[in-house]
Sequence to fold (374 residues):
Amino acid sequence: MEMLRAIGLMSGTSLDGVDAAWLETDGVLVGRLGPSLTLPYDAALRADLRRLLDRAPALPRDDAGVAEIAARLTERHVEAVRAIGMPADIVGFHGQTILHRPDRRLTWQIGDADLLARATGLRVAWDFRSADVAAGGEGAPLVPAYHAALAAKLPLPLAVLNIGGVANVTFIGADGALLACDTGPGNGPLDDWAACHASLACDRDGVLSAAGRVDAGVLARLLADPWFRRPMPKSLDRLAFGATLAASGLDALAACDGAATLVAFIAGAVARIPLPEMPRRWLVCGGGRHNPSIMAALRARLGAVAPVEDVGWDGDALEAQCFGFLAVRVLRGLALSFPGTTGVGRPLPGGRIQEGQGSALDPQGVRGPLDPMP
Fold:
C-alpha cells in the first residue's frame, strides 16, 4: 500500500498540552519519522479542562460552555499542525477526553474536527474511540497497533508501558499475540497531589517523592480497589480512583510522603497486571519516564525496565505518532481495536473523516479518496 504523510495530534489526560508528530505510514508499516513538538496549554485552558473533568458526567453534549472550550482547544491544535510545517495527507485528531465510562458505553473527547479541517485545509480523522465503546469494547488503549508496528524487529515477549495521566500497557507475546489494558493511575493523581499539597505543577524530576517515605497502610488500601481484580482488557477514566484516594488516608500524609506513596501506587498497579508470560523487558514512554522515582519503583517491581529511547523510539512523540498512524488506518478501513486490547468481539475499524479543502502546508492539496482496505 502507498505510504501517506500524516500528522498525529494527542492531548492526554495530564492536560498539559498538545503533542504533534509527523510520519509516513501505510497504516501497517511505519516509514519515515519526522519532526515532533509539544505546545503547552495556557493556565486558563488547562484549568477549564480540569473543571470539565469534574462536570462532564452531568453536562449535555451540546453545552455552550463545552463548545467554547473545545474551540480554544482546537485552535491550539491548529497551531501545532502549522508549527510542524510539513506537507501532509491527513491529520489524526484525538481531542481531549473529558469522560470515559465504557461500562455505560460512554466516551467523550472534545474538539472540533470541522474547525481543524477548515483552518488547516487538511483531511482530518477523528472520533477514534466511539465505535469500539458502542460495540462493547473498552475504547482504550488504542496505541497497541502502533506499538506492535514499531516493535516488529524487537525480541519478544515485550511490554510497552505508557505513563500519562492514566497508565496503560501493550503486551506483545512471543507468538505476536497482542494484549493491552490500562494498568491504573499514572501521573494524574501525583500531579493533583503536587499541586494541592506542594504548590507544584507536578513532581518534577521526582524531587518531592524522593524526599518521602511510602506509607504501607495507605498503599495497601489503594491497591485493594476492586478495579484491580477485574480481568484485562480494561480501561479507566482520569478520575477513576477519586473515592479510593479520598478514603485511603492519603490526605493525612506529609506532601513528600503522599507523593512517594502515589509513586508506589503507580508501580504496584502495573505489577498486578496478569500477563501470560514475563516480558523480556519493559519499555516505558509518556511523561512518567522522566520521573526518576517512578522509574526506580518500576525497576524494583518489574526488573528490566528502560525508557523507549533505548530502542530508538521517541517517548515524547509516541502517542502523537500513534494517532497519525491510526488516522491512515481510519482512512483505509483497517481495525483500530482488537479482542485482546479492548475486549471488543472482533477486530474493529473506527473513526470518522472530515474532509479538508487543500492546504498551504502542501501545494498539491490532500489526495483524493482511497478505497477502504479489508
Observations:
- The domain at 4-138+316-354 is CATH 3.30.420.40 (Nucleotidyltransferase; domain 5).
- The chain has two domains: 4-138+316-354, 144-311.
- Residues 64-84 form the longest helix (21 residues).
- The longest strand covers residues 90-101.
